[in-house]
Amino acid sequence: MSTAAVAAGTPLLQTVGLSKHYPLTRSTGAWLRREPAEVLKAVEGVELAVHPGRTLGVVGETGSGKSTLGRLILRLERPTSGQVLLDGHDIVEGGREGTRKLRREVQVVLQDPYTSLNPHQSVGDALGEALKVTGTTPREQRPARVAELLDQVGFPSAWADRRPGQLSGGGRQRVSIARALAVGPRLLVADEPVSALDVSVQAQVLNLFQRLQSELGLAYLFITHDLAVLERIADDVAVLYLGRVIESGPAAALFADPKHPYTRALLAAAPKLGQRRSTSSAVRGELPNPIAPPSGCPFNPRCPAATDVCRSVVPLTTTTPDGLRVACHLYPGSTPGSDAPLDGAAAVPSPLTGAASSPSPAPSTWRHS
Asked: Are 19 and 165 found together in one domain?
């Protein structure tokens, strides 16, 4: 985990009220009945900040909106509303120059190293092509720059002649990281970069991410479904559920004492050192239909602490004394018009221990161990 301090002033990257809605095509019958078109709200009002030299981890189940959020930040999708700010400037409204700046400053490492590289290109050609397209390195200097990039990810320069098929999964991911570094970015968006790798190889690639951050001062937006990975690499964490951030804050505080029942359940499902990975999710039930999400708190159908207000009122985001921001009626300030936690929620079964715990002001008995 990076020990870099949060830079004063403007974050490197920030999202403000970021939303992405996908209108769905109506059937002929629905059109004849003049039924309103359905809308899938993949991302809804997301507020995040990535500071220079730090790692923000974004975690959630499949379908929570993580990858859509990454595409919005990379400007591969245009937001329905909200802003993505790079150095305080809106990349959506920045025009062609804003796009060029984004491509220089922000690069991506994708999940599958087997499909993200051209199998017919050598490693050197793949890296050289990135240098050529971006115009960052004169032609005569490209071989030296390719050798430098390979050295940064732990490969000898002679490996420039190898093709992706001659490399392991971890080796291909190292090449993908080297290609992302070719233009000298300040931020890498890593979308599930180790989920397709063996556990031992995952550790090696995570070590590489940490070393590069220390040497180059990189910032990371690290998207994953695995909190065990974030516990190792993240400085800050944002937990997504049905496109909304339901808990966020410093990683140390979140892993020491998670607040939202969903975060606790994810931690309970995460593999621990020396233990086998759980074969079943600790989050009961299925993810609701994002086209017709439940009223009130989106997590209420699966929450062991849900009460009537959870089923009818969307919780506000409040800040706890240890710096975590959580949207849950269990905490003072989350219920509109009330500064007290929910009545009748004094004894709630813990998703981690099964024991009852008190939600006021912060249920420390649900601490992750």
From this structure: yes
DSSP 145-187: HHHHHHHHTT--GGGGG--GGGS-HHHHHHHHHHHHHTT--SE
Same domain, 81 and 171: yes
Q: pLDDT for 180-217, tens place per residue?
A: 999 899 999 999 998 878 888 888 999 999 999 999 99
In the DSSP assignment, the letter for residue 310 is G
Tell me, what CATH number does 53's domain have? 3.40.50.300
Question: By three-state DSSP, how is residue 212 classified?
Answer: helix
Same domain, 173 and 275: no
Give the integer Cα–Cα distance in Å for 56 and 244. 16
d(Cα 97, Cα 106) in Å, to the nearest integer?
14
Residue 352 has pLDDT above 60, yes or no: no
226-253 b/e with 16+ CB inside 10 Å = b?
A: bbbbbbbbbbbbbbbbbbbbbbbbbbbb
Q: Are residues 172 and 218 in the same domain?
A: yes
On whether both 149 and 267 belong to a single domain, the answer is no
Show Cβ contacts of residue 96 under 8 Å, excluding neighbours closer than 6 positions.
none
How far is 328 from 115, CA to CA, in rounded Å?
A: 40
325 near 305, Cβ under 8 Å? no
Residues 176 and 80 reside in one and the same domain: yes
> What is the residue range of 164's domain?
1-256
How much is the pLDDT for 3? 42
Q: Which residues pair with 21 in a beta bridge?
A: 41
